[in-house]
Amino acid sequence: MVPEGRGVKEIYEVLSQRDVQGAADEFRSLYDRTEAKDGYVSLEVNPHLAHDTSGTMKEARRLWDALNRPNVFIKVPATTEGLPAIQQLIGEGINVNVTLLFGIPRYRQVVEAYLAGVEARAAQAKPVKTNGLGGQLLCGSH
Question: Catalytic residue among 9, 37, 75, 126, which?
Answer without folding.
Answer: 75
